[in-house]
């Protein structure tokens, strides 16, 4: 059998090796932690080359991705002490100019106060018009209760936003009546509604219903729970890491989180049962209700971002290129022994641009265009005959480049 063989092989860039490694110093209580020192590749088995990873240790949920003053920011759940999920989780922080090559900074949020002393869990970032970014995050307080907190940059003129200050009046939201203290977490990016109020949803579980509890604020500091959830259902488990955002009906371009008009539909996403599920529907702000085109069924028919390892995802609107970008946590599901032996666990998916399909019934995803930067070395073979069951060695590249 004769085959016309043309091999195009991409030379991938090792994300961390192209970045600047900064040792962790005292910052919001991040003291005496293992520094961000890169271990040699051969000492950390099976590290990836394409996906985002910290230099070492455990990583899970992406938090607060955003673009600010020419820089992309990615915060993420991180255990500074080891390769397993821990009881002292923090917000690590990395920045990039192209979403491919990353600079690892000092940690952004660490447990220091009664309202987050047992961990700084997941949350989101919202950019307030004329005021800059604000972080909302879940703290595990001294009583092991989940509460919502706020933090602001110390220096808005710093494009890297290296220092964050926690709000003096934290917590700003506590579990409402009827909601257990361990079922109240992961605030979304906030959106500005027609009445000038800020809105945010918190993932929860109550009365055998997974739900998005809605909170509103006129100043972003004082928050009041709305009388009803924005959406709830009996067909899921506890809602983790909810996401809520508009998508254009007539364009593949993304839109800002606060856009609300006849030209958009709204996506409601929740993480439960080890997967990320979403619905497409209509947001009715006058009633503060979300009406899905098709409700969750609790079956394999429900829409999912990904059918592989993909969880706790977060989107953000990239105003520079008018696109919405999706990140997701990828857990390899190695054994505890393997993770400890590797010295790391978890990575982030390759960032994807996301938009509404022409049918309006599902989302479309595609790796961001910057991924093309990873294509470096090309090897071409023309008119090469390959016999059945034969072996042909491609010389000039390594396995890590394919």
Portion of residues in beta strands equals 35-45%
Mean pLDDT score, rounded?
89
Q: What is the straight-line distance between the termini?
A: 25 Å
Question: Describe the biggest sheet?
Answer: 6 strands, antiparallel
SSE pattern: EEEEEEEEEEEEEEEEEEEEEHEEEE
Based on CA atoms alone, the radius of gyration comes out at: 22 Å
Number of strands: 25
Which of globular, elongated, flat, extended, rod-shaped describes the shape? globular
Q: Helix fraction?
A: under 10%
What class, by secondary structure content? mainly beta
How many H/I helices?
A: 1
Low-confidence stretches: 1-27, 32-41
Structure description:
The two termini are 25 Å apart. It contains 1 helix and 25 strands. Strands 9, 10, 11, 12, 13 and 14 form a 6-stranded antiparallel beta sheet that branches. With 402 residues, it is mainly β. GO terms for molecular function: beta-fructofuranosidase activity. It comes from Populus alba x Populus x berolinensis. This is Beta-fructofuranosidase.
Describe what is shown at a glance.
It comes from Populus alba x Populus x berolinensis. The two termini are 25 Å apart.
Secondary-structure blueprint:
Elements: E1 57-68, E2 71-79, E3 90-96, E4 102-104, E5 120-128, E6 132-140, E7 146-153, E8 164-166, E9 184-185, E10 191-192, E11 198-206, E12 209-217, E13 224-225, E14 231-233, E15 240-248, E16 264-272, E17 275-284, E18 289-292, E19 303-304, E20 311-318, E21 323-330, H1 336-342, E22 344-345, E23 347-348, E24 352-356, E25 363-367
Pfam family, one: Glyco_hydro_32N
InterPro entries: Fructan_Metab_Enzymes, Glyco_hydro_32, Glyco_hydro_32_AS, Glyco_hydro_32_N, Glyco_hydro_beta-prop_sf
Keywords: Glycosidase, Hydrolase, Signal
